[in-house]
Amino acid sequence: MTKPGKKYQEAVKLLDSGGSYSPQEAIELAKKMAYAQFDETVELHLRMGVDPRNASQQVRGVVLLPHGLGKQVRILVFAQGEAERIAKEAGADFVGGDELVKKIEDGWLEFDAAMATPDMMSKVGKLGKILGRRGLMPNPKSGTVVAAKDLPRVVGDARKGRVEFKLDRTAIIHVSVGKVSFEDDKLLGNLTAVIEAIVKAKPSGAKGQYVKSASLTTTMGPGIRLDLNSTLVLSSS
After folding, report:
1. How far apart, in Å, are the Cα atoms of 166 and each of 34, 41, 79, 139, 177?
2. How much is the average pLDDT of 122-136?
3. Which tens digit of pLDDT belongs to each residue from 184-228?
4. Residue that terminates a domain, selected from 119, 143, 160
């Protein structure tokens, strides 16, 4: 196992290893510990008290971050005919049908968000293994399979900072909430929006404690344990 670098070890020294932090404190600390030469992403990680193998306990949804993601989002739309024209006018970066499917099958993945009109899903379905593992597969449940008339709204939301959250096979949810360069209040605003959305998405089949633990981290930094009570109360403040 590779030994953590000197900068990482210095960052860890700022942590109270046995303690937890309020969201505001964690944001301030995450920014202090960021040491990379690029603008690191700030990420929220939640360990959920649900069973990812149980269909009635799935947690999935989308949230529009009020302050965006701090990056240029490259948007791809699978569409044809009139829907293709609408998608292009809405500002999608890549629009098409069979040619885009073939391009992706050949290894091209230079985009950050993908959506499709319903009539295209018979063709897009063959990309499930490629796009699914990267969280890019259009899906009605995440609002990325939409009618042509809704494309301007969905493309616009993606451009502003629309993010999807989904329970993984280890019962953890990972969500980006912004960049280290963001002002503290903007990171807190984005974090609040994510917490609200996940609390609202609690499935009817969930039993016991819904969120078991939470942490905040940057791309290269160590995890900062969040105080669960002060984090979850964000959803009702």
Report:
1. 26, 18, 25, 12, 14
2. 90
3. 999 999 999 999 999 999 998 898 999 999 999 999 989 999 999
4. 160
d(CA 194, CA 186): 13
Extended beta strands in the chain, E state: 41-48, 60-64, 75-78, 94-96, 113-116, 162-166, 172-179, 211-218, 224-225
Largest Cα–Cα distance in the chain?
A: 58
Same domain, 85 and 155: yes
Cα(155)–Cα(77) distance, rounded to whole angstroms? 9
Q: CA 57, CA 201: separation in Å to the nearest integer?
A: 10
Alpha carbons 70 and 156: distance in angstroms, whole number? 15
Whole-number percent of the chain with pLDDT over 90 = 73
Distance CA 58, CA 35 (A): 36
pTM for the full predicted model = 0.78
Domain residues for 15?
6-68+162-236
**1 inside domain:** no
Q: Which of 118, 141, 160 is the last residue of a domain?
A: 160
**Mean pLDDT across the chain, nearest whole number?**
92
The answer to whether position 140 is within a domain reads yes
Residues 227 and 170 placed together within one structural domain of the fold:
yes
